[in-house]
Design goal:
By secondary structure, this protein is an alpha/beta fold. The chain has 5 helices and 8 strands; from the N terminus they run βαβααββαβαβββ. Strand 7 and strand 8 form a beta hairpin.
């Protein structure tokens, strides 16, 4: 989860334009994203995030073969994706399923299946629901060197975590891996 230095995962209206500031890329951070995605085989998405997320990465994969993001886009397109929704029954996208069942029941069932890890790509309210239900096993929080003053958090209640590792990147971002305490 990308987060601002003042603890927000998005601006008050869901803005995340602060995540990819111009001139602020770091090859090691980029490689970490690819490695993390390579270690999973299923992506979990919220209903609001899924359409834009899927369309973006399909566009990069299909139309930008020379983009440095293409290897990541290939993973995003080819992985199984499950969008959770109480209202939608279909969302366009390759390898994308829509799940209308109880979030906790479905995620626990997915966790018990053989295969690689599950990886969550949001959005904020979806991740907040997973956090509130104690369904997150590892938190990868990328703290960005920007404060926005007001916004949306993935945490609704107190959550005690244990820091397992921390890596600082040349672009000023810090990746913290936390485990539930």
């Amino acid at each position: 989860m990308q987060m601002t230095i003042d603890g927000f995962a998005a601006g008050p209206n869901g803005e995340n334009d602060w995540v990819f500031l111009p001139g602020k890329q770091d090859p090691a951070a980029f490689q970490f994203g690819i490695d993390l995605a390579s270690g999973c085989d299923t992506l979990l998405l919220g209903r609001k995030t899924a359409p834009e997320f899927v369309a973006h990465w399909e566009n990069v994969f299909d139309n930008q073969p020379d983009s440095p993001w293409n290897p990541f886009a290939k993973l995003m397109v080819n992985h199984r994706k499950i969008a959770f929704s109480r209202t939608e029954t279909a969302i366009p996208g390759r390898n994308l399923e829509v799940e209308n069942g109880d979030l906790a029941t479905v995620v626990q069932a997915l966790k018990s299946q053989p295969g690689k890890d599950l990886l969550v790509y949001g959005g904020v309210s979806f991740v907040r629901s997973l956090v509130g239900l104690n369904l997150i096993d590892e938190y990868y929080i990328i703290v960005n060197p920007v404060a926005i003053g007001n916004g949306l958090s993935i945490f609704k209640d107190r959550k005690v975590l244990t820091l397992e590792s921390s890596v600082a990147y040349t672009n000023g971002k810090v990746l913290n891996k936390y485990l539930p305490a």
